[in-house]
Design brief:
Blueprint lengths: L21 E5 L2 E4 L4 E4 L2 H4 L8 H11 L12 H12 L5 E7 L2 H16 L3 E5 L8 H6 L3 H4 L9 E4 L4 H7 L4 E6 L2 E2 L5 E2 L2 H14 L2 E5 L23 E4 L10 E6 L18 H16 L2 H16 L7 E7 L2 E6 L4 H9 L2 E2 L1 E3 L3 E4 L7 H15 L3
The protein binds pyridoxal-5'-phosphate (PLP).
């Protein structure tokens, strides 16, 4: 969402009017209809880890479009099989299976259903400030009141506990708990990084109580935080892993990766018509190959360290805190962030917010050193010094 000019579409704009028309993209650059170029510092909330139109993904889509676009999950397909195997090859051996869908919220819905069915328990424990999607199950795990209230009553048996507070989590997890669902770095909630002790405590208390542990890596996954998956940093492996956004290089995809130990415990049915269609799977294989070959997690780590260092020098009267991991950075202001975003846009840099006071940076991991450096300097100028 941008903040200047009149709305340009009658599309049902449920989360703010759209005022900037963008027509083309390549890497970390986007162009509007007049040909003006912008540096993309938000990558559609983390969809574009590989940037816009990654050439290998585009080639894979072109080739697959000539073979087979869609296929029900009742049939085997070698492209789908290869995508699932490629994804599992990047993960610890404790994971055994992948459920494919079309979005992050569906990845969360599947995790909730799998956990309830596998444990036979009702309760889902999530974190305050957490975000897991907008469909009713995922929304029930999401924290922000404005997102929830107009749609209540939500799904019962969801509780929220303070993030990074192991004692509060321990108090909430009991013999009725099916799932503890956490983001290793809270994105929409303002870029808050989990502590190692918290995630380790979450792992040991879920093991003890018989609940499952899920990490929502829809935003943190696929290189964003300087590791292929953020959980690698802490060495804490969950039972369920939620992925989406950049997993297919820009096409809609969701994945719920399930531990071997959980797979045989699932009862009931779950399904998604478009989930795992060959077109998306072909794009997904190309996307994963590019992430690995171009060592994009390492690039995210290097550029992220540089970003945290530069932004850490912003003036304290304006900025309360700068935090993040890799190329997932939040700058928390002491005032509303919207005017800063508008000023950045007028200078040709598209950043996003997380809540009303946090500027969130999720640039494509392929952003050039020059564009990243220019983005950081533009922020410093807009904020006024540092
Ligand atoms: C951590 C997390 N989980 C889930 C979602 C929902 O994903 P989607 O918008 O694809 O449904 C998001 C979206 O921002 C997210 O950041």
């Amino acid at each position: 969402m941008t903040t200047t000019g009149p709305p340009v579409t009658r599309e049902f704009a449920t989360s703010g009017a759209r005022r900037l028309t963008l027509v083309r993209g390549l890497g970390a650059r986007l162009w509007d209809e007049t040909g003006r170029s912008y540096v993309d510092l938000g990558a559609t909330h983390g969809v574009g880890n590989l940037g816009s139109n990654p050439p290998e993904v585009v080639r894979a889509i072109e080739a697959q479009a000539k073979e087979l676009l869609y296929l029900g999950s009742g049939y085997a397909n070698p492209v789908r099989t290869q995508f699932v195997e490629r994804l599992l090859s990047l993960l610890p051996g404790s994971f055994g299976s992948v459920f494919l869908s079309n979005s992050g919220t569906e990845a969360a819905e599947a995790a909730i259903k799998i956990a309830r069915s596998a444990t036979g328990r009702p309760k889902i424990v999530a974190a305050m400030r957490g975000f897991h999607g907008r469909t009713l199950g995922a929304l029930s795990a999401t924290w922000r009141r404005e997102f929830r209230e107009p749609f209540e009553p939500l799904v019962p048996e969801f509780v929220h506990v303070p993030f990074n507070d192991a004692a509060a989590l321990e108090a909430a997890v009991d013999e009725t708990t099916a799932l503890v669902l956490l983001e290793p770095v809270q994105g929409e909630g303002g870029v808050h990084v989990a502590s190692a002790e918290y995630l380790r405590a979450a792992r040991s208390m879920t093991e003890r109580s018989g609940a499952l542990l899920a990490f929502d890596e829809v935003q943190t996954g696929l290189g964003r935080t300087g590791r292929m998956f953020a959980f690698e940093r802490w060495g804490v492996v969950p039972d369920l892993l939620l992925l989406a956004k950049s997993l297919a290089g820009g096409l809609p995809v969701g994945a719920t990766v399930v531990a071997r130990s959980v797979v045989p415990r699932f009862r009931g049915s779950h399904h998604s018509t478009f989930g795992g269609n060959p077109l998306v799977c072909a794009a997904g294989i190309a996307a994963l190959d590019s992430l690995v070959r171009d060592r994009l997690p390492e690039r995210a780590e290097r550029l992220g360290t540089q970003g945290l260092e530069r932004l850490g020098r912003l003036p304290g009267e304006k900025v309360r805190e700068v935090r993040g991991l890799g190329l997932m950075i939040g700058v928390e202001f002491r005032e509303k962030v919207a005017p800063f975003l508008a000023e950045l846009e007028s200078r040709g840099f598209l950043a996003i917010s997380a809540g009303s006071t946090v500027l969130r940076l999720l640039p494509p991991l392929v952003i050039t050193d020059e564009d990243w450096g220019a983005g950081l300097e533009a922020i410093a100028e807009v904020v006024g010094g540092g």
